[in-house]
Known about the structure:
Elements: H1 3-21, E1 52-56, H2 59-69, E2 75-79, E3 84-88, E4 92-93, E5 96-97, E6 102-107, H3 112-120, E7 125-126, H4 127-136, E8 141-144, H5 153-161, E9 164-168, E10 179-181, E11 187-191, E12 200-205, E13 214-224, E14 229-235, H6 238-256, E15 264-266
Parallel strand pairs: 1-6, 2-15
Antiparallel strand pairs: 2-3, 3-6, 4-5, 7-14, 8-12, 9-11, 10-11, 12-13, 13-14
Amino acid sequence: MDKSAIQAIADMATASATSQLAKVEGVAMVIPKDHQLTSLEHLQECPDAFKATFKTTVIAEFIRYLLVHIEQSSALFINPENMSAKAVLDLGVPEHPLWGRHVAMAALKKIPAYEALLEANDSNFLQQAFIDFAEDHECNIAFIDSDGEHLDYRQTINTLRTLKVTASRENDQTVGNYAATRSALESIEVSAGNQQLPYGFVFTVSPYDGFEPVTLTAQMRSLNDDKAIRLKFRIQQLEVTKAEIAEAFKVALTGELRNHSDAIYIAEFTYQ
Length: 272
């Protein structure tokens, strides 16, 4: 008996069985190719388990979703370094594991002004480009002098528009915010006539949606050549501020979910 004859007999048997089951309401028979097992879940009135992935960039929405769905079988894993969190809501325990098909994730997105500040940190700006940056974030920036006192914003912008370079031949090895040594015998300095140049600025911004504003202090410098004046700034103690923001993220989650503190971990987690 060849292969085609065997297939014909199998098809006849399948047709006979199917014709009988067709008379019974709510029953279906699945004959997969190569006799592989296939789930009939899609023919049921409802699925066997809740399978879903919830994603958000807003911490308040993440918390709201968890408060509705978190159970004794759930676990939350927080990664404060990259401002993300993952909850496996049907995790179970090692003795009685569940499928882990219901997951909620939060990956916070920086507020545009905060992101722009970090991207511009320690970058070289042409004179006009820095002024454009300062004017784009006027509501966030306050220029300061070396004592930390605030300077008039508009007057400082006008001062930055009138910068000029002065070169002198002398053996000066001193490096300041607006001065740098070109060679052993020649130094250059940026000035604005009798106007006071800013020491730097403070930048106040909410780093992520739902977070309290933070204030970062930046020190300004100049880079000079024969063609153009370039300005740059460096945020002071940036890593300290980032650590404080990460701690605020952790506290926000653990505080709202304090009734489930036993199921909260500071960790990365992969299941199945």
